[in-house]
Every structure is written in structure tokens, then in C-alpha cells.
Amino acid sequence: MSFRDKQLTEKEKAGILRAAEAVKQINGGKRQRVFVRTFGCQQNEADSEKILGMAVNMGYVPTEDADIADLIVINTCAVREHAEKKALSVIGQYKHCKRRKPELVIAVCGCMVSQLHRTDELKNKYPYVDFTFGTSDIHLFPQLLEERLKGGKRSFTLPPDEPAVAENIPIHRLSSYRAWVSIMYGCNNFCSYCIVPYVRGRERSRCPEEVIKEVRGLVEAGYKEITLLGQNVNSYGRDCSFDCNFSELLRRLDKIDGEWILRFMTSHPKDASFELIDVIAGSKHIAHQFHLPAQSGSDPVLKKMNRVYTREKYMEIMNYIKAKMPDCVITTDIIVGFPGETDEDFEKTLDLLSSVRYDMVFSFIYSPRKGTPAASMEQVPEEVKGVRMKKLLDLQTEIASELSAPYGGRRLRVLCCGRSQTDEGMLEGRTEGNKTVLFEGDASLEGRFVDVEVTQAGAFVLRGKLI
């Protein structure tokens, strides 16, 4: 299917615009407030900014207080069972808001509601939820809201078989200097542990001209850090007829003048090419940072995971990155206790950490996801998972401490991200490699690049003084 085939029709676009105007008329110019609660990944955060953008376009004013909202939207995650249960718990709390204000509209969207058993649960056990919509139907938000405000029945949608790519959705960005830009949606990989392809659909890439236009507009508006998003950015463009792969897209974006940093996530090792690494190494704006999820260091486990690469192939990529960019900050994802993982398999994962020497590892204890092949495999006992996780964390802390030590006394350029959420009175910044730096300074520095001299180099946090 070509890119052109997956665009919204002119009739569909007109219907969305008409619905947005209709909602304004129904609300009669009254000051209506919208509250959006987001669970999950950066892609969900980007989706929530679009939901807010559409709500603002319909006359709503964003609020951080659900108690005074006239419209509540809960954007959910389905990556792990725990995330779904937490979202359901929060949704349950909003029944009190509905009791106090019967005219309140509550919508639930995101990955969780793209599963039939969850939509049925919301329909039958949460009568105060007015409607749901999945990640492929975000653009239908105005029409679903209009229908409910007019007294229509509660509605619970499931993803379409062939979702479209909706461009020009208004975005209400929550930061004035850091931005998410989705370049593609969905996933074709079907890793045996992952629910994402089932809830976000197959891969759909945006037109490169639209991506470039959006990024250029952000740079011209003063944004300093822009992150490209996709479940597997390395496969960008393969589903379309236009002649532009991910490496070429990065080349074109890197030509945009300005003081800014370009990041991307997430990469899949099976599609991480030497060409991509060469482009990053020779760029002006692309951060020397590479997040490449390994998930395991054992070939038998990788095969069960359906990762479609071997440890040897993964190490070839790592070695090439280090050869081309010795200063590159490298991070990964690791799943501990995947079904059937033996002590020998786990030792190979520890050996991978020692071989690559990651700056940071995002580690997760495996939990079964209903509807995925791994959920029916032989499970590793929870106590074994816990012991293995501790070993992995201890080793990674040791490696990270050794890698951070040379930062002591160095002068670093960081993007100030405002007050630290964990260390009162300190500002927090991010280096090009996305390392966290804490330092004293005035809050007015937020959104600016500053120089900091490192005075203390911890395993995962650097501390310094403003120059």
C-alpha cells in the first residue's frame, strides 16, 4: 500500500472540521476545561498533545485539575499488565467527578482500549465512561465528542483494519523548547512478548515533506530539542512509495539551520544500518546517542523473542558505533526472566553488558501480556526473576560508575530543563548524550543551552557548577 492510499479523504477531513465547530456551538461559548491524563511511552505523550490540541481547537482550556474539568481524557498504555491496572484504577476514581458533575464527559483512549476485552470491561463495569478511541482513531476525537454531547449513546471503538495517517492535527505542546515528532505509527515486528503491533497496527510512515515541514517550524519557533518517534524508526519509509529511508530523512533534517539537537527513538537492531551510523557521525545536529534495545544476550532467547538478529549481529553494530563515534552514549533495554530463560542464558546477558559497557540499561522483569505468544510459554519463577534482576542492576551500576568517572572536571554543554523533580533547589540539564546534570542556577535558564563544569560524577547523575 502506498503512502497516498493511507491518507484521510477530503470528506473525512471535512467531517472532522465540522465536528470541531459543532462542539463549539454546543458548548455555547462557555469556558469549558479539559484534563488529559497520560500513561505510557513518549508516543503516548505525543498523542496526548494532539488530543489537547484538538480540544483547544474546540474551545476547551487545559487544566491540571480533574475536579474542575468538563472533559476528562485518559490516554492509556498496554505494554505491561501493571500499566493497565493502574490506568483502570485512575479511571475508577473519576466516577466521583461524574457524580458531582453529571454533564462531565469522560473518554478513554490509547493502547489499552484497542483490546476487545478491555473495551468490554470499560463498557460493562465503568458506566460513567462515555466513549473510547484507539491510537489509530485520534483524529475522530471531535466527532465522538460531538455525538456524545448531542445525547448519543456511549461508544466503544476498535482499531480499523487499515488505519490512515492523519496529518495537520492541531498540537498543544506542553513544552516551549522540547518537542516530540511522530514520523511513523505501528509496528510490523511482532516480538513474541509485545502487544504493540496488536494495539497500534501495522507500520504507516508519514510523508518526509510533512515531517521536515513540522521540524523546520519547531526550529524556527525556538525549540532546542526535537525527538523523532516511531516503534521502529529504522524501518521508516519501507511501507510507502516515496524514496526516502530513515537515514535519508535524517540527512535532510540535519540541513535545517539553527541551534538545536535532534534525537530519535526507538531503533530495532535488525534494521540498524552502518549507513545510519555514518549519517549520525557526520551530522551537525543529531545527538551522539544511540538507544538500541538488545533485550537479551542469548541467541536461544532472542529466537524465542522473535527478535530476528543474533548476538553476533548486535555486536557488529555496537562495534561500528564505537569506531565511528567514540563519544557516543549507548543505552539499551533488557528483559529479565523471559519464558524459558536459563541461568546460562542470563549469564550471557550479563556478559553482553560487560562487553558493550552501556551508559544506562532500562531493565524490565518479564510479565505476560494476554494475546502474545510468550504468555503461553513456560514461565520463569518470580523469585528467580528477582535474583537475576538484582545481579543485572548491580553489574550495570558498576559499569555506569566507571564510565561516568572521566566526566569529573569536564565542561559540558547542556540543555536546561528547569527545576529538578528529585533534588529541591537544583536545576536539571541534559547533555547531548542525554545524561542528567544537576546544578544551581536561576529558573530563567530553562530552555537554554548552558555550560556546566562537572564537580561530581555519579553512576547515573552528574553534578556541576554553572559557568
Number of helices: 14
Largest sheet: number of strands, sense, barrel closure: 6 strands, parallel
How many β-strand runs?
19
Overall spatial form: globular
CATH-defined superfamily of the largest domain:
tm_1862 like domain
CATH architecture call of the largest domain: Alpha-Beta Horseshoe
CATH class of the largest domain: Alpha Beta
Main β-sheet, spatial strand arrangement: 2-1-3-4-5-6
Give keywords.
3 domains; 5-stranded mixed barrel; disordered N terminus; globular; 467 residues; 20% strand; Rossmann fold; 35% helix; 6-stranded parallel beta sheet; 19 strands; alpha/beta; pyruvate-formate lyase- activating enzyme; OB fold (Dihydrolipoamide Acetyltransferase, E2P)
Provide an overview of this structure.
Helix 13 (343-356) packs parallel to helix 14 (382-404). With 467 residues, the protein is α/β, with parallel strands linked by helices. The strands form five sheets. The protein has a six-stranded parallel sheet, sandwiched between helices. A five-stranded mixed β-barrel has the order 15-16-17-19-18. The protein has three domains: 4-156, Methylthiotransferase, N-terminal domain (Rossmann fold, 3-Layer(aba) Sandwich), CATH 3.40.50; 178-405, tm_1862 like domain (pyruvate-formate lyase- activating enzyme); 408-466, OB fold (Dihydrolipoamide Acetyltransferase, E2P) (Beta Barrel). It starts with 9 loop residues before the first helix and ends with a strand. Helix 5 links the parallel strand 4 and strand 5 (131-133). Helices cover 35% and strands 20% of the residues. It is built from 14 helices and 19 strands.
